[in-house]
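Exercise 7.
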Amino acid sequence: MSEGTLEMKRLRVGSGCSIGAVADDWNGRGRCIGARIRGVNVGILDEQVLVLVFRALNWDPQALCAVARVSRRLRAVAERVLWRELCVSRAPRMVFALTAGSSSAPGSGRFGGGWPALAKLLLFCCGAASAAVPGHFAPVSRFSKTSGRSFLSRRCGGDLLYVSDPCEHAAPGAVGAGDEDVGAYRGVFRGFMRSRTRACLVGGRAPLEPRVRCPYCGARVWSVTAAGLAPRSACRRLGAHEGRLEYFVCVSGHLHGSCWLARLSDSDGEGERDGFGSLSDDDGFGAVAASEDEDDGRMAL
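Solution. The predicted structure, written as tokens, is:
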């Protein structure tokens, strides 16, 4: 064996020993060896860069979806950080209220069903399958705690529920569609696992629907209407016919439903709009956070 080869061999052994010594030192201090050796440019460094990029893009949801499809690593960062930041930027008061009772700081940590599901609920109208109305991107929405109270029975009055204004659609080919529209709405509970609504559903042995899934997280759902927990105030709030309203809540606490809306006259419509306009606890969302309190809490993307 040549002298040069022997020297190279000694260098490799020496470098291997030094790395092993450093690794032993890290291990003795209880630190993660893999993160120190292999993770030089992962974790919070990349997350901070992505947060800055999407903040500059005004948290464009379509761009975020495209990035999340690039790789598993980017998808993990999106699910852990980016979707949460999008929700906070679009509906800060709503997110603060929904996470205020959690063990972590409001607006951070985990959320029932996951942050991607909440972001989809904020940005996507699920339509009405019973009336053949497809779902669609909803650029302007408003969620209200006052509307949510109208969907709670007296036994569940202590729960906190945000519900959106109904998204109105003309029902294709439906009988009487010239006089009525289909309203699709969605909402979310705070701390659904500890809510009175869930306790009533479980205690009353309400069956999970075999053919319906949550359009936001894919979980199984209960029919609140079939369980007898849908109050009449929900119909009055939406301006719907009694007996023509149905909504579901999934095991993660996401609510979705539809109803048949009677078209209002001009005088009725003004009164209804004034009623909605007097709300003080609404939370709209959109691209420009500075305009959140303008136009009755609604913001356009």
